[in-house]
Amino acid sequence: MTGAAGIATVLAVHRSRRHDFSKFSQATVKLVAEWGVEGDAHAGLTVQHRSRVARDPSQPNLRQVHLLHAELFEQLMTRGFSVHPGDLGENITTRGVDLLALPAGTLLHLGREAVVEVTGLRNPCSQIDRFQQGLMVAVLDRDSSGQLVRKAGVMGVVLTGGEVSAGDVIRIVLPPPPHGPLVPV
User: Fold this and answer.
1) What residue stretches are annotated with the MOSC domain (predicted)?
2) pLDDT, tens digit, for every residue of 118-165?
3) Is residue 182 part of a domain?
4) Cα R_g (the chain), whole angstroms
5) What is the domain-level CATH number for residue 95?
6) Do β-strands 154-160 and 162-165 pair in parallel, antiparallel, or remain unpaired?
7) What's the domain range around 66?
8) Is 2 a domain residue?
9) What's the gap between Cα 103 and its chain centre?
10) pLDDT of residue 2
11) Which of 43, 45, 99, 148 is deepest in the core (most CB within 10 A)?
12) Which residues pair with 72 in a beta bridge?
């Protein structure tokens, strides 16, 4: 579940007070238990994503924190896209952890105190193509059995608050088996 060096780290942290597609780089973000990233438009007890609010604003917010692996940016750059940390709207950019291979319920210990529980996959939307044409197709793939693979990161909820900064180590605690694949939330 971790990179070749075996150390998972936070590469960068981001937030935006507005419902913009990209988020702004910060030196530190504060995670608030059961809320999300302090000062971020997507923080809250109930759904904050506009399309989900329109359907049912009382749904629990399983998307308080968006985490994305920096290795995706490298893959996209080889395909001609210019994508950098924060561009795809993530709050936390990671390095050295295969986020997409984690099971739901995985606990990510970020920095000294914060704990985020992985709830599922980010389901990429058409805004990605408005950011850069063709990017939607580039963050989707098919596995050997033809199943759709979403590569745009994972979502989580904050169990324990704390400050998170670039360079922080990520400690991964898997839930008890059996483990199933992540599904979009």
Assistant:
1) 22-173
2) 999 999 888 899 999 999 999 999 999 999 999 999 999 999 999 999
3) no
4) 15
5) 2.40.33.20
6) unpaired
7) 8-173
8) no
9) 14
10) 54
11) 99
12) none
